[in-house]
Amino acid sequence: MQQQFDAMLTGSDSEVNGIATRLDSGAYEFNSLDGSLQLIIARNADGKWERLAGTEPYFGGWIDEFAEQIPAAIDI
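and the corresponding structure tokens:
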């Protein structure tokens, strides 16, 4: 079952608002409301968050910023 929540990433000019979805694989996908940004992250074998896919270019800080917004209740 996919779970969604509102999320925001800091862009170069302004905030980028979007919807985050927990995928069946356990990864999380961020899609901006305006369609300009997509980011998929997941935990690696060491338990650290890493980028799996998404639009280019992207800011490396988005991975941590997105991961911090994942509600602990669904980060299982």
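(Above: one complete record from the training split.) The first strand starts at residue 3 and ends at 10.
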